[in-house]
Design brief:
The chain is α/β, with parallel strands linked by helices. It is built from 18 helices and 24 strands. The strands form six sheets. The protein has a six-stranded mixed β-sheet with strand order 6-9-10-3-11-12, with helices on both faces. The chain has a six-stranded mixed β-sheet with strand order 18-21-22-15-23-24, sandwiched between helices. The radius of gyration is 23 Å and the shape is globular. The two termini are 46 Å apart.
């Protein structure tokens, strides 16, 4: 049986920004109804390539063919008209609109000249139910968690009835259960003939869901391979251009170390109930659980971002009161939010301004004026120390890769000289090499005596980094695992309450 001709062909694609060439003669053909993986380090050109396909950028030179015919895609409206949809990595949602209004924004259903709100609500509900994420479609987006926003973005792309769907890091905010639901939906779409491009740094997921994989490095095409000819080690080697050794540093044994932070009976109305845990000095402590289990809410309450109704927080054995984030910082706590672009970095600020944002008053203001030279020097030191790749440290952070943005965000909190560093999804949306750099950095902090809490939905991250792990379920601590008991099976059991091979009644 003859192979069907490609649905999408990219031939000799070049993209330049000013004098910098970020894509150089990239050519790839995508078959109808296949799931094509697209991988590479941050800065490899993945995002630029998919933005060209979606009309967000226009290629400098090269040819795009759809069904064998050359096409020009000058904007996203044209791409949508050609049947191309995108689930973006960074959310493109309007916070003050409802879930269903966001899902149909720019693609509204009408009855005559009027909006058919009932139909949009019903279709939105159906799409979210297919993703096993029953969000109330009347809720405003500002009230949603990061994972819920991700599902809204996916549903938003689904209602386009696109022929080609591009998923840009769609699982970074999702736990294993949500990823399984998404993959089931993708397989169903594949059966219906929908072609998909799956961009991800999670190589295990690429191996699970993709038919073939396109690998980019430094703006060049490395290879296009059948998934059966690959494994994660081969992909990583092709991505970085060298052999890839151990991802995680050796674990730090925290046995016998004295407690630094003790949380007892922490309660936050409708979110947390009687949460208690200890963090030892120089320890890397893990927090696992499903989306909505209360992990982020626990950390936000400790940092004074949410108000606790009862409970005690002790630091170095002494009770402390945290009524605001400033109180937390003054006590030596620091927090890397899971929502890097929404609650973390300032996209229009450069590296020095982002790094000194919290410590500005204490460290960089002299006689009522900002010491620009000191701020500049500090920025340069962090660029070198954190291996931040930047053409100019004065460029706005919106032009940086996700991995480099995360390094700047980390540097900002390290500039406050914390004793406790809380990292919520610290490697969300960054490549395998940047992940290893961040793991090594966390490890070095712990060796220096800084206590770290790692909140992660990536099972291997918690297992690979942490000597102890607390698992949360429904706003409470469901389990406490140590050393050899930190296994995927034990984490899943505590997170869901369902043992392997045991079905829950009802």
């Amino acid at each position: 049986m003859a192979k069907r001709p490609p649905i999408l062909e990219l031939e000799g694609i070049v993209k330049e920004f000013s004098t910098v060439r970020v894509l150089d003669q990239v050519s790839v053909s995508i078959r109808p109804g296949e799931i094509m993986g697209l991988v590479g380090e941050n800065g490899a050109g993945k995002s630029t390539l998919i933005k060209i396909i979606c009309g967000i950028y226009e290629e400098t030179s090269g040819t795009i063919r759809l069904d064998g015919n050359p096409v020009r895609i000058p904007d996203y409206i044209t791409a949508k008209g050609l049947g191309i949809g995108l689930v973006p990595q960074e959310f493109n949602l309007i916070n003050y609109l409802t879930v269903y209004e966001n899902i149909f924004l720019g693609n509204e259903r009408k009855k005559g000249v009027f909006l058919d709100k009932h139909r949009m609500r019903q279709e939105s509900k159906a799409q979210l139910e297919s993703l096993k994420m029953p969000i109330d479609v009347h809720r405003t987006v500002s009230d949603l968690s990061v994972a819920e926003k991700q599902m809204v973005e996916i549903a938003k792309a689904m209602v386009l009835d696109a022929r080609i769907l591009i998923f840009d890091e769609p699982t970074t905010a999702l736990t294993g259960v949500e990823v399984q639901h998404l993959f089931a939906l993708m397989r169903k779409l594949k059966e219906q003939g929908v072609t998909m491009i799956f961009v991800s740094h999670k190589l295990g997921e690429v191996m699970t869901i993709c038919d073939r994989v396109t690998i980019l490095r430094d703006g060049h095409l490395v290879s296009v391979d059948e998934i059966r000819d690959l494994d994660t080690t081969i992909i990583a080697r092709k991505m970085v251009g060298r052999d890839f050794s151990q991802v995680f540093p050796d674990k730090i044994d925290s046995t016998g170390k004295p407690p630094l932070l003790e949380v007892e009976g922490l309660t936050c109305p409708n979110l947390l109930r009687d949460v208690s845990f200890t963090l030892r000095k120089g320890e890397i402590l893990g927090f696992a659980g499903l989306v909505g289990a209360g992990r982020t809410e626990t950390m936000e309450t400790i940092m004074g971002l949410r108000k606790m109704s009862s409970g005690t927080i002790r630091f170095d054995g002494k009770p402390i009161r945290i009524g605001s984030p400033r109180d937390a910082v003054n006590h030596g706590l620091a927090y890397i939010s899971e929502d890097r672009q929404g609650k973390g970095i300032v996209m229009d600020y450069d590296i020095p301004k982002n790094i000194t944002l919290i410590s500005l008053k204490e460290k960089y203001v002299k006689r009522g004026l900002i010491d620009k030279s000191s701020e500049e020097q500090s920025g340069k030191e962090y660029v070198k120390g954190f291996n931040i790749v930047a053409a100019s440290h004065r460029a706005p952070l919106r032009f940086f890769s996700g991995g480099n943005q995360q390094k700047v965000y980390l540097a900002r909190w390290i500039d406050t000289k914390p004793r406790v560093l809380i990292l919520d999804e610290p490697t969300r949306g960054i490549d395998v090499n940047a992940k290893r750099e961040i793991y090594e950095f966390i490890h070095s902090l712990a060796e220096e005596g800084i206590s770290c809490i790692v909140v992660s939905s990536e099972m291997e991250e918690v297992i690979g980094m942490c000597d102890r792990v607390y698992v949360m379920r429904e706003g409470r601590i469901a389990g406490h695992l140590e050393k050899e008991h930190i296994t995927e099976e034990n984490i899943v059991f505590n997170a869901t309450g369902i043992q392997k091979g045991v079905k829950r009644d009802g």
